[in-house]
Fold Cytochrome c domain-containing protein.
Amino acid sequence: MKLAGVVLLTVMVLHAVAAQAEAYDAVQARQGWVLNCMGCHTADGSGIPGKVPALRESLGHFVGMPEGREFVMRVPGASNSALSDAELANVLNWVLATMNASTRPAGFKAYTAEEIAAHRRPALTDVAKTRLGIVKKLQAKGISTVPEHY
Ligand code: HEC
């Protein structure tokens, strides 16, 4: 039947569009996360109070601002990780999609290997100061859910 064909095609196109918007490989990302990030940030990204910030439901706010988007690539844990530029982009896009569904901006553009390569180095040396500046900007925009201290 013709209608069924059209419906099937529409479903297939929508799947392709959704996959493109997400732009990450979940299997590789999980592996990269487990080997390079999870030891400090914990399995579900909640962090360790007093030591390691949560990445869950906060990174989405950071990437909503250019300086926050850059900060995420340049924090030492990300910048200095053994992950290649493409792998780091993949892990960050996955963290943003799976742990930041409610904070990631609607028009978020996925990180690319090229963007990571251009920005990840040098790693930030004044992380706390840079972070506080960004958190204050978020507060000025009415976002108070990213803690100043973790
Ligand atoms: C050795 C422990 C450690 C590892 C491994 C680590 N991080 Fe971190 N991460 C931290 C700490 C501590 C901070 C707080 C800033 C700082 O002091 O560097 C942080 C901050 C961050 C931030 C900024 C969040 C915020 O609210 O300030 C991001 C994004 C991040 N890490 C991503 C990653 C990613 C992605 C990986 C894996 C590729 C990773 N980190 C691996 C310890 C780690």
About this structure: The mean pLDDT is 91. The pocket of heme C is lined by residues 36-37, 39-41, 52-53, 55, 58-59, 72, 75-78, 81, 83, 91-92, 127, 131 (CB under 6 Å).
